[in-house]
Every structure is written in C-alpha cells, then in structure tokens.
Design a protein that fits this description.
With 237 residues, the protein is an alpha+beta fold. Helices cover 43% and strands 24% of the residues. Strands 1, 2, 3, 4, 5 and 6 form a six-stranded antiparallel β-sheet that branches. A hairpin with a 2-residue loop joins strand 8 and strand 9. The protein binds a DNA duplex (13 and 13 nucleotides) through helix 8.
Length: 237
Amino acid sequence: MIIREAKINNSIKRLDIMQNKLSTDINPDILKIIQAHFSNLEELELQEEIAIHGQLLQLKHGETLMDYGGFIKLVPLVVKGVIKIIREDENGNEIFLYFIQGGESCTMSFSCCIQNKRSEIRAEVEDDAIIIGIPVQHVDAWMSKYQSWKNFIMSSYDARINELIYAIDSIAFSKMDERLINYLEDKSHALDTKTIHTTHQNIAHDLNASREAVSRLLKKLEKEGTVKLGRNKIELL
DNA sequence: ACATTAAGTGATT
DNA sequence: AATCACTTAATGT
C-alpha cells in the first residue's frame, strides 16, 4: 500500500493547512480501503469519488490533527488507529471527550466545515493512524448526491451526541468512578488491548481530576478485582 | 549507588 | 473531590 506522507511542521499536521490533491485518477488503494472498512458507503460512484478526491495520510502518535480555532479543509475518515478528541478551557484545563477509531469519522469536523466554523475541539493521534482526508467541498456536495453518505454522517452525529450526553451527566453529577471506568473501557476497546500503558497522572489530566483521586479509585477497582495495576500499566480483567 | 519518576496514604479543607 | 505533605516503590544512569 502506498501512503503519501504529508509535510510535517514541528511534528504537527493540521487539516486546515493541508493542500488538496490535484488529480482525477482513482486511487485503487483508497477504493479497496473504503470497500473493506466503510461498507456503509454503498454507491460505487461514491466510493470512486472518495478514491479520486481523498488523500491517504499516515499519522503518528502525538500529532495534532486539529486544534482550537483552526479551519478545516479536510474531513478525516479514520481507517486505522485511534484519534483522541479533547476540549479545553481558557486556563488550559483539558477534558477528554471521546475516541474515534477505524470505520468512524470526526463528527465535529462535519459541522465545522459545513458551516465553515472554527474548530471547538482538539484532535490528537492516540495510536498511529491511517486516515482518508476528504476535501470539505465534497463532504457538502455528497450529502445531497448520495443517500449512504448522508446516512453515514447522520448516524455519526447520532452516536456522538449519545456519547456526549453520557459525558455530560457523568460530569454534572461528578461521577468520577464511572468516568474512570468508562475511560478505561473506552481506551481498551479503542486500542484493542486489555493492558493500558499510561500513568495515573495522564489519566487524571484527561479527566481533569487530581492524580491522587485517580490512584485511589484505581486502587479501589483493584480490590474489587476489575483491574490489575502495575507501573505505567493497567490491566482490565 | 544515586537520582528521577510513578504511585500510595493520611490529613486538611 | 482537591491539595498538601510525605512515603514507598520502580526504573534509568
């Protein structure tokens, strides 16, 4: 598989500054990927359009895909890997919102690009990822042209809104324990492993909580037998 | 062996 | 649940 490497400035790749590809050829790699990972996108014509206009991008852990205030020129379809979506306040307090993984797309980017608004969130690569970037003008145009594209976007909204509602009430009712469990399960599922390699400090940062609180809750979970703890390591049982 | 970083604990607010 | 102060444990040099 041929993967086009985009230029990297200080290891940051931003969708709002990437250039569109000037080509009318169908990229056979993209076509295969779409058929294998995005089977919901049924119309062959749509698949071919994605293969013509999409750009295959490889992203490494820690890169920033999208940042606050940025305009978006490409909407990412995540083929492989995991993208972490984060919200941040004026003081730099970050709060983890959700992960995007293979077969999914970034819902926030739809609303941003369709209404040409600036990003309200930050997207970071959590696990090395491969994405197909769709230039925004097509995202909009395909909505009325292809039923399955519209459905894809709508169900993406639906899934995300449900997640956000859950996130809101666990934050509003300060259910730290639930948030932690949810975070661990989410991460385990996204990275497809039972063993999570991270520190209590990092988790605390994502959940906007104190390290001690996370440590204590994890300790409690260990006593209950739901996890096994190690240095830089949490095993889900 | 020593320094650094991660994690555990109790007390206080 | 946050913060502080401190201890203990693991890991790197």
